[in-house]
Write a structure and sequence with these properties.
eight-stranded mixed beta sheet; about 375 residues; globular; four-stranded antiparallel beta sheet; alpha+beta
């Protein structure tokens, strides 16, 4: 059963209240440090009301909107993976007791998280990470402990950024699966309205307890208009036809040298990417002699990431960018049955020199086909 209702802003606050009462830690978009980031939120007052983002290659700015939209932005620097796959996770502790080393696994209690404002491309990204951390022979217990009780309130995109290309990757802008509730912000009236639809039994139960009213045909027409407009205004495009073979069969293409001349190998693209999952382990010793081993995010742009016997396998910017892009768009299919790119555009926005993955694909396609 699918329930569809129309809520006003006060009704959305009721949603926050219900989720909190049921023990969820509510996380959503909020404005901090001149960016829209994901963090703990309590009510709609914490959301970026009346703000949007102006972004392009290597550029991001917040600007005021001419309305009071709560979800009138695109994507900021953080992604939901930082809550499901934290940047740093303690794995074990090593202590000494009567001259004997004692190894203690770190316990990670399950967490009830509720995400507010998840976009279609981000739903796809969570699906990608599910395949990495849950679907293989070995399940990651930290990820599973946060993912299994996750409640997702998705949002259909009402606009596209200059760096968005989810239409090319068939991941948006409409949320079609992977959510408990999905809403569309409608701004045609004097006050914003929110058409909300259930997508799971949990979502149906939560929605049945909220105020609101029945959606009219006009509301459904507005939703179609919103999504149609977003599709038309994608800022980027990527031709994905034959892309796996293109990248795998051209490891010595001169375009790799061209991009390497600009790439700083800083790893910003992998940190901002909602699907990258590379990690390493690090050890530290406390002042009382206890050793702690932690898992931390890593990047294939790091020189030591591919080190074997003390020497990096990929010691050039050329080889490291090629590894990232080929894995993301080609060999990911071999591992996980899908692309590792969801078209969110974060890697373009947050690259300090504005390297554009869609432009690199296009340039390679044009030279190979010419």
């Amino acid at each position: 059963m699918v329930t569809i209702r129309v809520l006003d802003r006060n009704d959305l606050d009721a949603l926050f209240g219900v989720l909190t009462t049921e023990g969820f830690e509510v996380i959503g978009p909020t404005r901090r440090d001149d960016a829209i980031v994901y963090d703990r939120v309590a009510t709609t007052a914490d959301l970026p009301r009346g703000w949007t983002d102006d972004q392009d290659g290597g550029r991001y700015r917040l600007v005021r909107r001419d309305d009071d939209a709560l979800f009138g932005y695109n994507l900021g620097p953080t992604s939901w993976k930082r809550f499901l796959f934290p940047p740093e996770t303690e794995l074990l502790r090593i202590s000494r007791s009567d001259g004997t080393l004692v190894f203690s696994d770190t316990e990670h209690p399950k967490e009830k998280l509720a995400f507010i404002g998840v976009r279609a491309c981000e739903l796809a990204a969570i699906g990608v990470q599910d395949r990495v951390f849950l679907d293989g022979k070995f399940v990651d217990p930290v990820y599973a402990g946060r993912r299994n009780d996750l409640f997702v309130v998705a949002v259909n995109c009402g606009q596209a950024a200059a760096t968005c290309f989810c239409v090319s990757m068939e991941t948006g802008p409409e949320c079609t699966s992977g959510y408990d509730l999905v809403l569309t912000e409608l701004l045609e009236g004097s006050e914003p309205e929110y058409l909300i639809q259930s997508g799971s039994a949990a979502g149906e139960r939560i929605l049945s307890g909220l105020p609101g009213r029945e959606a009219s045909a006009a509301h459904h027409d507005q939703v179609r208009d919103v999504l149609s407009g977003t599709r038309r205004h994608m800022g980027r495009h990527m031709n994905t036809a034959g892309i796996r073979e293109l990248l795998i069969e051209n490891p010595e293409h001169p375009r790799w040298d061209d991009v390497a001349a600009r790439c700083l190998t800083c790893g910003n693209c992998t940190l901002a990417c909602p699907t990258c999952f590379c990690s390493t382990t690090a050890d530290k010793v406390t002042l009382d002699g206890e050793a702690i081993r932690s898992r931390t995010w890593d990047s294939c742009f790091s020189l030591d990431f591919s080190a074997l016997h003390g020497h990096p396998v990929r010691n050039s910017a050329n080889s490291r960018y090629r590894q990232w892009m080929t894995h993301k768009l080609a060999t990911w299919f071999d591992q996980f049955g899908s692309s590792g790119c969801v078209g969110c555009g974060r890697c373009i926005t947050w690259c300090p020199v504005g390297i554009d993955i869609t432009a690199e694909v296009t340039a390679t396609q044009e030279t190979v086909s010419s």
